[in-house]
Write a structure and sequence with these properties.
Blueprint lengths: L1 E2 L4 E2 L18 E4 L4 E5 L19 E5 L4 E4 L25
Antiparallel strand pairs: 1-2, 3-4, 4-5, 5-6
Length: 97
């Protein structure tokens, strides 16, 4: 975890059934609030050109900074089109109501 006040990274101990996610490139992350970080998309492959996206059921993961737990947010069902299929090098923006 990066501490913006000290400009240093610190290791995070993970808890829960969901293990820490595999490393990925081309993903994007967004802090929704003080306790929630959403990581979307990315690729497990090493190449930048035509990088194969992570599987759809692994494309959105959430980290709770208070409980140090990861969890997946899979699509509602396999027929759902709510999650775009290719989320490599995408962007996220938080819009406040």
């Amino acid at each position: 975890m990066f501490d913006a006040c000290t400009y240093k990274f610190a290791p995070v101990k993970y808890r829960g059934e969901f293990k820490e996610p595999k490393g990925r490139q081309g993903a994007t992350a967004l802090a929704l609030d003080k306790y929630t970080i959403v990581v979307v998309g990315g690729s497990y492959s090493a190449g930048f050109i035509d990088a194969e996206p992570v599987p759809l059921n692994e494309s959105v993961i959430v980290f709770n900074t208070e409980s140090s737990q990861w969890r997946e947010l899979p699509p509602k069902n396999s027929q759902s089109q709510t999650t775009p299929w290719n989320l490599v090098f995408c962007s996220l923006v938080k819009l406040d109501p």
